[in-house]
Amino acid sequence: SCLYVGPIETASQEMLEALYRQARDSYYSGQPLIVDDMFDKVELKLRVYGSPSVVKYPRCSLKRQSAYADAEEDHSMFMALSSIWTLLLLFGTSAFLVPSFYTLSLAFGDAFGARSLFSGAKSLDGITRVNHMVLIGLGYLIGYPVASASVGALQGLLTNNVVALKGSCPNCGEQVFAFVKTDKSIKAPHKAECHVCECPLEYRTKVERSLSGPRRSWVYGRVYMVKQGHPRKRRWIKD
């Protein structure tokens, strides 16, 4: 008999994995226990949980006439990229704010009685003023573009427009990953190469709405091996 797990949306990962294995084995034996729609819902919910039970190894697609493998979000790479952009944001912000605040503090130090904060700072002469203005200008030219780019990148990460996907190379089986844009206006798949066998790859993503949790959506997809129309030098993995 079919294992009862209750509503799929609230069922635990362990119960869904047990039902998934039971339904899969019964399907292969020629006696399916559940309908295809329910099986797809169970598989989708397990993908949300990040269960390894639904991660399938490289296989062939009859429709595309190409080998492919499943891809899932790589949260560790996502956090690493977020940390890098956060550090760049702090650097860019500091590059044009710190010189500005320092110069303003020196300029208005006498008026606010804050001369003692700057170890004998005196009234700025003409050359000193020019130097500080140059410092502010350089800080703005360097820091503002870095900070602006960092803000845009972090917005893309937080709104799920850019995700880190990992999967197995359909050619050699090594783990590959890529940062993929999920904007629906971008129709073309993300293209990359395997870092081991140099096989050309395509990442195709699918965005699903999250029924629970802080994130509004989550992403998964597939890694396809691209067929070449002309010979290309690369290392193929032999049996």
TrEMBL record:
One of its GO terms (biological process) is photosynthetic electron transport in photosystem I. Keywords: Membrane, Transmembrane, Transmembrane helix. InterPro entries: PGRL1. GO terms for molecular function: oxidoreductase activity, acting on iron-sulfur proteins as donors. The chain crosses the membrane at residues 84-109, 130-147. The keyword Nucleus does not apply. It comes from the Eukaryota. The keyword Transmembrane helix applies. GO terms for cellular component: chloroplast thylakoid membrane. This is PGR5-like protein 1A, chloroplastic. The lineage of its organism: Eukaryota, Viridiplantae, Streptophyta, Embryophyta, Tracheophyta.
